[in-house]
Amino acid sequence: MRASSNDDGLNATIHPDGSAVLVVDETPHEIATTHAEDARREIVRLTAQIARQLDTPLHVLVTEPDGTWPLVVDGDEKVEYAAPTGAPRPETPYSSAPPAAPAAEDPAPGPKRGSAPRAETPAPARVATPRSAHDARVVRPERETFLTSGRDQDEREEPATRGFRGAMTRMGIRMAPGAEERSERSDQMDVAHHWPGPRTIAVVNGKGGSGKTPTTILLAAVFARFGGAGVLAWDNNQTRGTLGWRTEQGPHEATLHDMLGASDHLLSTEAQAADVANFVHHQRQDRFDVLRSQPIALASEQRVSAEDVDRIHAVAARYYRLIVMDSGNDESDPLWQRMIDHTDQLVIATTTRDEHAEAGALLLDALAERDERSAKLAANAVSIVSQADQRSTGAEVRRIVDGYRQLTRDVVQIPFDPAMIDGHLHYGALRPATQRAWLAATASVARGFQGA
Which phi and psi angles does 76 have, rounded to 5°? Predict the structure, then answer.
């Protein structure tokens, strides 16, 4: 039988009282037995169960009161002594069909394992009797509230679900999550946070094709999937925005112009929460809503003013906790500038193409000089760099990413994914690595709201 490497090395200890513990990847699994023979069989059984799951024999180092046994156990519960090369093979209490073994002798009389000598209890201090019953007050010692669990954070933590640790959990051996799974859970918790009052995100870049619309869609999708309802993606574009082309259409053709016309009612006390559904397009898979522009009309036929942006934003802020605004390419447009005035978190969307990266950097320079508030937005911005070309080398991608590290609070790289190229865009259709990258990007955006 070929043994596996010691990377998965298991350790087991049989105590003098017949109980045992099996340690798997630094996580102990208590074995409630009363005889060494039973403990040995349970150690072999559990190790074989793990070996079957991993489809490879496993090393297990068993320490007993009378010796230490390096063993190899396969999925059929066959046991071999893993002696060093050339070393004699001793008689062990383990075999493929473990024979009855005498229970370990009780240790010499004295304190039990792990116990400490009992300390003498000091006599209670004498308390002076109050002079008057009217002056008597009982001074009660401080106590721990019953509302605290008294358990460590690790005990409240959900067990691992991924990789080797997740496999152990599914077999009944509770394993703590590893560093990678903990990091993912931390990002999910940041994204799931709800802030007091609405928050607005502006996704910007002065160059067309730089990934603003996919970034808007996927940020909204991640916020809605992990944080719940109340997320709106808004196509704030004078010149034929395409947010509506890459998302699902609802049972109507309403656009932001229709919402603007109904804004008096939507802001009135008579309006109901469901009324806004007449003007937005719900994404059934990703659970956010889309406020469309009218991409088939000329810009001159659907001109929106800065005051219109204020009006639409007031409606959106009443019905949604989070607003993600897709933007056009004209930074001089009052529509674009008014969006910045409503923004709480700025996101620079760019691809790994040089012209897209430079356009985003120039935009940050312009905002830094616009006014104090815009300069703060630029300094706190998050850059999301999507790999536009599958053939891009690692050096080319790192050059853009490293450049943006000097310009913004954080930068997140999104790997190339064919599901992001054309058509309707859904978070669930992305590759696992791409989904993880978008979760990290959204968590970084969410962390920007902590001081807002």
Answer: -95, 15
Contact criterion met (CB below 8 Å) for 335 and 202: no
The pLDDT value recorded for residue 451 is: 59
210 touches 326 (CB < 8 A) = no
Is there a single domain that holds both residue 278 and residue 397?
yes
* pLDDT of amino acid 374: 96
240: left (phi over 0), alpha (psi -120 to 50) or beta: left
- Asked whether residue 276 falls in the same domain as residue 376, the answer is yes
The CB-side HSE value for 369 (13 A sphere, CA atoms) comes to 4
**3-state secondary structure string, the chain?**
CCCCCHHHCEEEEECCCCCEEEEECCEEEEECCCCHHHHHHHHHHHHHHHHHHHCCCEEEEEEECCEEEEEEECCCCCEEECCCCCCCCCCCCCCCCCCCCCCCCCCCCCCCCCCCCCCCCCCCCCCCCCCCHHHCCCCCCCCCCCCCCCCCHHHHCCCCCCHHHHHHHHCCCCCCCCHHHHHHHHHHHHHHCCCCCCEEEEEECCCCCCCHHHHHHHHHHHHHHHHCCCEEEEEECCCCCCCCCCCCCCCCCCCHHHHHHCHHHHCCCCCCHHHHHHCCEECCCCCCEEECCCCCCCHHHCCCCHHHHHHHHHHHHHHCCEEEEEECCCCCCHHHHHHHHHCCEEEEEEECCHHHHHHHHHHHHHHHHHCHHHHHHHHCCEEEEECCCCCCCHHHHHHHHHHHHCCCCEEEEECCCHHHCCCCCCHHHCCHHHHHHHHHHHHHHHHCCCCC
pLDDT in tens, 406-440: 999 999 999 999 999 989 999 999 999 999 999 99
Quote the CA–CA distance of 132 and 141 in Å, as a whole number.
22
287 with 164, same domain: the answer is no
Where do we find the tokens 């074995």? 31
Full-prediction pTM beyond 0.85? no
**Tens of pLDDT, residues 278-323:** 999 999 999 999 999 876 555 555 578 999 999 999 999 999 999 9
Instruction: State the pLDDT at residue 452.
Output: 56
- How high is the pLDDT of residue 380? 97
Dist. CA 416–CA 115, nearest whole Å: 59
Residue 83: which domain range? 1-98+159-177
Crossing angle for the helix pair 334-342 and 306-319, nearest 10 degrees? 40
Phi, psi of 339 (to 5 degrees): -60, -45
CATH code of the domain covering residue 213: 3.40.50.300
